[in-house]
Amino acid sequence: MNIVWRRRLLRSGIAVIVAGLAIQLVPYGRNHVNPPVASEPVWDSPSTRAFAKQACFDCHSNETEWPLYASVAPVSWLVQHDVEEGRAVLNFSEWQRPQEEAAESAEEIGEGAMPPAIYRLMHAHARLSSADLDLLATGLTKTIGALH
Prior knowledge:
- This protein has one domain (27-145).
- The chain is built from seven helices and no strands.
- By secondary structure, the chain is mainly α.
């Protein structure tokens, strides 16, 4: 490798490091506040709640457990966005307000859309067996069905 390419590579590396440090100054993605739990659904069973806590609560409740990487941009931006979006459409900690996608939650689980694959990859506790996912989906159907 000649000297010109080494200099370009060094400058590129420095630019990447500087950019990586600079994006840490963006404040979004570090507001790791969990609002208080206002109300939960009347769960059909303790196991449904346990499975929901295990696989759903990080994005769909006010009981999010924020991992260390959730404080490092740009990953922090993605995590914050996912939690905000998840809480907006279904929040097990604010059951007193309308839940946009509560009725679809069991179907999403049955189709394998929830919990998302990237979440399961990063969180071993969310990798429920097929039987446990079936129990969760059935339990959510019963829990949510009790509302209607």
